[in-house]
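Re: folding output
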Amino acid sequence: MSLSSEVGVVDSADVEATIQDHFDEVRGCYARAGKAQKYAEGKVLLRFLIAGDGAAQDVWVLESSLGNYDVERCLVEVGRRIHFNAPAGNKATTFEYPVEFRSSTGVAVLDIDHTKAEHDVATLMPQLAACGRIADEDVNAIVYIEPNGLPGSVGLAGAAALDEDAGDCVVQTIRGWRLSIARPGLVVRTNFTIPPTLATAEASHHLHHRHH
């Protein structure tokens, strides 16, 4: 049975081969994690929006357990420069591609359920409103909390593309938080959801400026 489609179709082998041509760039993104390479690891699922000629029109982080915005942004930048073979029918299409990173020293990370951080997050979340609207849908934040209670690494992912200036503002703001779920001698990883409605709280007091 064949189905007519309004979108193009890409060959998975072609996609794999094309991305492998850029493997050194992809691998090099992990260096952006800096000191967080000691513990930040996980999978980043990228969503590619491909034009009819194979050019990457947009790329964003759909899901991530890595939890490092600098690495995630680097992957997006690399992805946007990749030109794939034209999809069948020369029609635009989307596909997902996973990239996984392992930490350099294997520092033990304790995963803590987001419910344990709810009180801290609820108290601090209003600070994020000043960053502006980060996306049109909920955004998932992954945070690694060092023993001193300060986030050493923060990542963002969501079903919709992020406003990159707002995302950078959100990450910098979260890195200034002190969270009570820290554990002596351990790095703690947790996650929470940032709703788009936060942007309305202080809509007239945006602290970030777009740079295009």
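--- second protein (sequence, then structure) ---
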Amino acid sequence: MRAILLAGGLGLFCTLLGTRWAIHVLVRKGYGQLIRDDGPTTHHTKRGTPTMGGLVIIVAVVVSYFGAKLLTGSPPSASALLLLALFVGLGAVGFVDDYIKIAKQRSLGLRSKAKFAGQTLIAVAFGWASLQFEDDRGVAPASPAISFIRVVSWELPTILVILWVLVMIAGTSNAVNLTDGLDGLATGASMMVFGAYTFMGIWQNNQFCVITPGPQCYQEVRDPLDLAVVAAAITGACFGFLWWNAAPAKIFMGDTGALSLGGAMAGMAVMTRTELLLVVLGGLFAMITLSVILQVGFFKLTKGRRLFRMAPLQHHFELLGWAEVTIVVRFWLISGICVALGLGTFYAEWVSGV
């Protein structure tokens, strides 16, 4: 528990102070956000706002995790190290994308195929490695079976497990990226989801079969408490970053932050054996992604008609005349409801014994 509190506190401290320094450096170097001309016209005032702030979140999470481990004298677990590798790896893909936008002065960075290739390489490596490193009980960081709140009774071949992990990571990282269109929206929603995973990791550890034997104890999860340390570090880092990212934003996380946070969500779901529950916990991200899918599908089926004024969904409400702050706060409320529903479902399963 001390490591969880330390990781969360250090993550908050690092981004709260580090982001201010990053803003100064990025402004001096001219690393500002480019705005698409086909987007809401109100966004043109944001042109030049420093981007790539996700670098601060990534550094803060890594520093706070290992700082907490050092201060408590506990060794890192295989699960946490793999999750951090996924977090940093996808952040690197996002960084390249952000840097190309700035260097070439265009609103689009990496080509879609190149970005997906980078995500695929990182996700496949993570999927394969997470099936290795079994502990003395023979439990690996990831399970070969798909899970909702616990794993199902049948297992998939290794290749299908890796493909499933790839779908989860690519889908979630892109979902957070789509949500990151308004000041503080993705940061605040991500903070809630990782806060939920902090609680779930603590609960799974407290009800761990080795510690608390019983009919409803968790035996298929490896390193739940250390995963909670990582989740707490990310929660704290997002909290501190939100101080500077809330409207009017002084800095944007960019693809660097969005891809890394989304990938970490998927990795956390895989390792806590709550893969399908992520759809509930991250309901806001799922809803915004679905709006893009529906918009594209409706456009093609009706030969040019649009279901929404603009996708992703948050921009539809902007074009309806809603203030940006109003949209962000109301979407945060939706995210909070989704997280509460996910946590309620998680706890209800344990209470009911189903």
